[in-house]
Amino acid sequence: MTKRVFEYEVGQKIPIAIAGCGVVGSALIRLLQKRAREIEDRTGLGFELVSLLVRDPSRERGVEIEPEILTTDLEAFLDSGAEIVVEVIGGLGTAAEIARQTLARGADLVTANKALLAESGAELTDLARISGARLEFEAAVGGGAPIIETIRTGLAETGIRKIRGILNGTTNYILTRLSEGADYETALADAQRAGFAEADPTRDIDGTDAADKIRILGWLAFGTDPAEITVEREGILPDPDTLAAKARERGGVVRSIAEVEHRDDLIHASVAPLIVADDSEWAMTRYEENLVTVETSWNGTIRIGGPGAGGYPTASAVLADLIRVAESRALTRTQIAPLSG
Predict the structure, then answer these.
(1) By Cβ atoms counted within 10 A, which residue in 91, 105, 245, 318 is the most buried?
(2) Domain 13-143+313-331, CATH among 3.10.20.90, 3.90.850.10, 3.40.50.300, 3.40.50.720
(3) Low pLDDT (below 70) residues in the chain
(4) CB–CB of 286/247 below 8 Å?
(5) What pTM, to 2 d.p., does this model score?
């Protein structure tokens, strides 16, 4: 593999490519357009969208896009010359191909794809290390709650022992509505109308999405390949209405809690709906909000919360990664003069 490192200079327009223009992709483009001047004033850098991979170029996306950058051709997208590639299409097929080829050629990759990272995070990290590329994925877990960077940097040397969290905004929205007296079908329809649930919410409802996220957090906290972390997983079906009713009888509410712990030289991980006290921090995490607690040996318990679903919270995390990558590469070209006097 040839090692190629892109370095960015102050004042440069960095060519980027985005794979996917659904809820998150379109929100990201809007943020890039609305905040371009602010980003340039603050960082000295700008972004130029040179390619946008979509399934249907004729679809209305509610955002202004130059027709010539739209493509359905994966090879054309990968050959666009982009120095940073953003992957927000999800899944494992095309997304995995984009990730591997991008990192192999030394371009930087920003992804929100928790399924991809849960299966191939260690492999992609190795590819990035060999080629000199950057791999960033803050948006993959927690949406607008910055848990990834917190674990990777701020808590890296604190002796993490256990991580617990409400990690799926869709499920939490539905469970909140159930606690308010709505039935499951109504709660799901409300979540879909609000943009917090997909047309097919299976991965959210059955706990798969949260399981992927807790595997990623276990990987970052304990260094175990996420593909090797087994999660005991239980969704909120088949009868969430009865589950919510039982919780009310006990003076609590239902929340889907994911956790991962390093205990007895093994990694233990699970996702399950639990009845929690009505005045607990878990019960007070409502609607699409996420909450993560990190128990450490040297720094106590850290709590991080924020919106865990919706286009703009996820897109803002992707944008933060874009800026972080660009600023880091720009710093490699900055010569700091010695102090005189």
Answers:
(1) 318
(2) 3.40.50.720
(3) 1-5, 10, 331-341
(4) no
(5) 0.92
